[in-house]
Design a protein that fits this description.
It is built from 13 helices and eleven strands. It is α/β, with parallel strands linked by helices. The strands form three sheets. A seven-stranded mixed sheet has the order 2-8-7-6-5-3-4. It has a two-stranded parallel ribbon with strand order 1-10.
Length: about 400
């Protein structure tokens, strides 16, 4: 049987990471995988995470199974972090999941089981794994316009027109609450209000991917688009990840939250989420959730963590601005100032697949073929090398 299995194509992003690891050239630069990096190129463990883990080591007294929906104190903290006082928490059916990816799949599985034939709309472009996750769950995927033709700004009118013309009642619409992956281009709050109004009028349901809270404008500020959606829409699915803002990439800490019209519907919703989890991974791991719960429930650790998130966001912003300035200094006749309004770890650089290949082959600089770059992978000591290489690439590929 297994001898007939074909070789699957490599993941478009993780495959580049593998190629980078095998590249023997000195001075290579990796701007592909979405992982926060320090100026030294390390993915750090946050100081608050270390403190929380020490506390857990001294107080944890069991490794027994948790409930299917996960760590209860963690879930209370997550719901408060995401919704604050903007929503009655009793309306939220929340479950811990293996990262944001697990949250997306559990949410999709729950919908697909009870509402077969449901369609979900994805921005063009969107995170590379979105389509695969939703299709594997049995949802029909469609795309709505997002980028302008020059791939440097949001084509909001086209986005609204696509959803208004082609959307129908009961459709899900996948939206990035902040720090759109892969472009870094977000709607304004005024545009979010129009999106919220349109979805409410059409009876379409927001399916919100919230993977980068705190990396855009701030922890509270980044939740405002979600809160704007919920003022007009009484139902939503929200998927959070704490890989980035807690640095817990390998711990796989996430949550799926199904918002119902009223609190009386929550228990039924949670029971169906439990079923989706039970036939998949049965129940979630403890350590990462316990770490997050410890930080969110301790006022001192919570305050220190907010400062750490702010520091990561500030470094990313500094690298983006340094890159813009660096490209100006090369004298190349292309303006990269459009990057300044982009948010989060990623930016669409405007480079094409051929140019991405040139950079990899000629200068050992790895970016995704779409032109997406991980700004958090940049560093001051390699910025001149990066900018000069891109300038040479643009000259060579005219």
């Amino acid at each position: 049987m297994f001898e007939h299995l074909p070789i699957a194509p490599p993941d478009s992003i993780l495959g580049l990471a593998d190629a980078f690891a095998k590249d023997p050239r000195p001075g290579k630069i990796n701007l592909t995988v979405g992982v926060y990096k320090t100026e030294d190129g390390a993915t750090p463990i946050l100081a608050t995470v270390k403190k929380a883990e020490v506390k857990l080591l001294n107080t944890e007294n069991t490794k027994g199974y948790m409930p299917i929906e996960g760590h209860q104190e963690y879930l209370r903290g997550v719901v408060n972090l995401v919704f604050g006082s903007e929503l009655e928490h009793g309306r939220v059916a929340a479950a811990q999941t293996p990262g944001g990816t697990g949250a997306l799949r559990v949410g999709a599985d729950t919908v697909a089981k009870h509402f077969p034939g449901t369609r979900i709309w994805l921005s063009n472009p969107t995170w590379a794994n979105h389509g695969s996750i939703f299709q594997a769950a049995g949802l029909e995927t469609n795309v709505y316009s997002y980028l302008s033709s020059d791939k440097t700004s949001l084509d909001f009118s086209a986005m609204i027109q696509d959803l208004e013309t082609n959307g129908r009642r009961g459709d899900l619409v996948c939206l990035h609450a902040c720090c759109h992956n892969p472009t870094g281009i977000d709607p304004t709050l005024a545009q979010w209000e129009q999106i919220a109004e349109l979805l409410a009028q059409k009876g379409m349901i927001p399916f919100v991917d919230f993977a980068y809270q705190g990396f855009g404008d701030g922890l509270e500020e980044d939740a405002k688009p979600l809160h704007t959606l919920l003022k007009k829409n009484s139902e939503a699915i929200v998927c959070s990840s704490f890989s980035k803002n807690f640095g817990l990439y390998s711990e796989r800490v996430g949550a799926v939250m199904l918002v119902s019209t009223e609190a009386s519907k929550t228990e039924a919703a949670l029971s169906q989420i439990r079923q989706a989890i039970r036939c998949n991974y049965s129940n979630p791991p403890r350590h990462g959730a316990s770490t997050v719960a410890t930080i969110l429930s301790d006022p001192t650790l919570h305050s220190e963590w907010v400062s750490e998130v702010n520091a990561m966001r500030d470094r990313i912003s500094q690298m983006r601005n340094m890159f813009i300035d660096g490209m100006k200094k090369t004298g190349i006749d292309r303006d990269f100032s459009f990057l300044a309004s982009q948010k989060g770890m990623f930016s669409y650089s405007g480079l094409n697949n051929m140019q991405a290949d040139w950079l990899k082959n000629e200068r050992a600089i790895y970016i995704v073929g779409t032109g997406r770059i991980n700004v958090a992978g940049m560093a001051p000591q390699t910025m001149d090398t990066l900018c000069n290489a891109i300038a040479d690439c643009l000259r060579a590929t005219r």
